[in-house]
Amino acid sequence: MQIDFKLTPGDLMPAVERMWELSAAKVMAIERRLGEADASPVFTVEGRYTARGWTDWTQGFQFGSALLQYDATGDAAFLHLGTDNTLRRMPPHVTHFGVHDHGFNNVSTYGTLWRLIAEGRISDEHRDVCELALRCSGAVQAQRWTPTADGGGFVHSFNGPHSLFVDTIRSMRSLGVAHRLGHELLGEQDVRVSLLDRMCSHLIATATWSVYYGEGRDAYDVRGRTAHEAIFNPRNGVYRCPSTQQGYSPFSTWTRGLAWAMCGFAEELEYLTEAVGADGATQPSPSPSPTRERRRHAQGRKARERGLGRQDDGAIAEVAQAADRAAEATCDFYIENTAADGIPYWDTGAPGLPALGDWRSRPSEPYNDHEPVDSSAAAIAAQGLLRFGRCRLLAGDSESGTRYVQAGLTIARTLFGEPYLIADRRHEGLIAHSVYHRPNGWDHVPEGRKVPCGEASMWGDYHARELAVYIGRLAGGGPYPVYWGSSKER
Length: 490
Prior knowledge:
about 5% strand, two-stranded antiparallel ribbon, globular, mainly alpha, single chain, three-stranded antiparallel beta sheet, Glycosyltransferase, 15 helices
């Protein structure tokens, strides 16, 4: 990736404003055509949003997009649309015990409304409803718990108790905001379970088993690479092997999973260092953790022994250091294994990539005949880079902090221009060239083409909008956007 170190958030605002202009019509077009349809829109086929039953994880992105449109433009029509759909149609998602996606569905809707209230942007009419929904959502998400052999555990995926998805690190937002609201999970015999404890344990498990650090863990241990899925023996919590559902192989890197890790770890690092405790925890050291396999769990064990539920600053700082390490490794890997303009191909081990030659040195080629790019991964990764860069800058590391921030801005410039921003108003998508499930063949291949291209996804469009809100705040001031309500920084 070729990072533009001169780019500023202000430089991007004309493109961002153009994106919001196009976005408005697309949000309304989807609402008019789909209305009260039972199935949630997932991705486009020939420019029209369609559903794909697997798990219902995209409804929150649909309604959350309307709320983000209001956030950026102040157009009350989108506030009413997003609020009405959230209050009427999202309650089933609050108590959905079958998915690991509460941070996607509920924090994108109830959480966005709650944030806007906390920022003083809208009235507090629905504060109680939003807070109750977020508290319940966090507890329901935390109930999907698999204990691990080292005394920790993780929120397991919809595949079952053996399955840790790298995606779920960003759904830890649901536990974080519920803990922020003072909520706990009550178990058998009224046993109280700290949501902060579970969030941090999940973070440690993901950092340990979903992210690689070049330590010789297996023959494909490349620093910053991620595994989509980590498989555990659910009877004793022992780790068994990497796996994947949507990537090319367990030993290659599905780039949207990589992006989820980048954004999730960066966002939880912000939470741990700024929101936990009365004054926030101590900033983590950017230095790497110990490298020997026998010490891989040292931070997690120490944190658990000290009692995360008691918000001990030392224990929280140790977990934050693990988040910092994972975010650094994944952000570095992304920068090193992405096309020059910041858009990744869908998997770094995809078998057709060698036919593209030195694809890292050239801008992405969404219309090639060998492997698709994934713009949705770029939209997620860009925000991860921006947030992690800010964490490093606040920690006093101006060199790496600047590098990550500028990488995020460089990606945003690509996404908000041709050939990614969809100017065709007949197309319901916002950001083109997104990929959903390449191995299953679910993505539309246009006539005359050999690989998927030209289509959008609900999560890609939503995260592009979230990225645009973030950049708008950097350029124009206002509260720094955080999922736990509001930040002291303005």
